[in-house]
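Structural prep section.
Before we set up the soaks we want a predicted structure of the protein with nicotinamide-adenine-dinucleotide in place, mainly to decide which crystallisation condition to try first. Input record follows.
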Amino acid sequence: MLKIGLIGLGPIGSLHIDNLTGGKIKDAELVCVCDMRKVDNPKIADIPFFSDTDRMLKEGGADAIVIATPSFTHFDLAKKCLMAGKNVLVEKPIALCSADAKKLQELAKKQNKICAVMLNQRTTPIYRRIKEMVSSGEIGKVNRVSWNMTNWFRPQIYFDMSVWRGLWKGEAGGVLINQAIHNIDAFAWIFGLPQSLRAWCKFGKYHNIEVEDEVSCYMEYPEEMTATFITSSGEHPGSNRFEISGDKAYVIAEDGKLRISKFKDGSARDFTLNTKYAFGTPETVESVEEFDGKGGQHAEVMNNFAGACLGKNKCDYGADQGVLSLTLANSMLYSSLTSAEIKFPFDDEAYAKILAQKQAASELRKEVRKDFILDFNKSFR
Ligand SMILES: NC(=O)c1ccc[n+]([C@@H]2O[C@H](COP(=O)([O-])OP(=O)(O)OC[C@H]3O[C@@H](n4cnc5c(N)ncnc54)[C@H](O)[C@@H]3O)[C@@H](O)[C@H]2O)c1
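Run finished without errors. Recording the tokens verbatim:
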């Protein structure tokens, strides 16, 4: 059994407590918890509580630590846990910039420990199926992708109830690094990183926040594949529509359904170049695949992490994977902040410098709103 310590007992920390104490994590038990504030949760009444991370690392008896604190604390806490010889599973984002994420990846290697990141939306069945369709060649050569992911609506109180949300200091970005990081991760997981991109962000367009709440990005990949990614935390109802135009099939993912149009004679390009019909279109075979539910999500990632720590399986959500989504999210911000096209490999040190300047001019909130109502379960996409 892996002995897990949990740092951060806010909304997402509570979900990890539910999973760990509710028998959903096969090879792990929760042996200690830590938060800066007193937390009243009957599920951890008998579990040793620490208000100080150093003491928990020394005295808590955990082999592995789950970090579920605000995003700006992830890098330092993960570093501290790895230095203390613990395996670590960090909530997303693994750090605030890809340069720091790479440092964690290197440190974990040096310490011979696992550093994983909570990329829970990779377990979403519809995204898994899309990845399989792309990598198996079922869609054929991908010509164009567009993902309109605009149903991440957040009201102002979501930001005002915490010291850190919506601030350069607290999370080093907005919708890109907090909400849509899940979709950006799925995107990079399926297609990899582009060779160039240009993005336009609107900062505080819908909310009284410092960071971006609307983004439009255009990307170019090898072999003339192009892609657009649009996201917003200010629109409602918005949509989540993911379209992939391939040479063998055209696929639309929306509302838990995959609508697949396969080209009957194989290649759309062959039809385009060879048909004699001036207004002809290739014949298609239509099918719809329906996906029920969201898959294993956080519990599945934690099970994989626990198994990896115990040497039972490989770690599918390592720091290298956390680097992917951060690189893409950071490069979109960098493009917008510098009004420039970004070429890959991304210069993450240059971005880290710009981010440091933004953070130096930003402060965590001194006053937070206390009149919020926590309806956290609504927030999953
Ligand atoms: N994977 C997901 O689906 C998902 C969903 C929600 C949030 N998150 C991520 O989880 C993190 C936490 O989100 P939240 O909404 O629970 O935040 P929150 O601010 O509501 O709660 C964080 C908790 O951590 C505690 N804390 C802060 N600094 C600490 C420290 N140094 N030591 C010990 N405790 C500390 C706070 O007192 C608080 O109880 C964020 O990085 C967020 O991006 C992930």
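Observations: The longest strand covers residues 212-220.
Flagged for discussion at group meeting.
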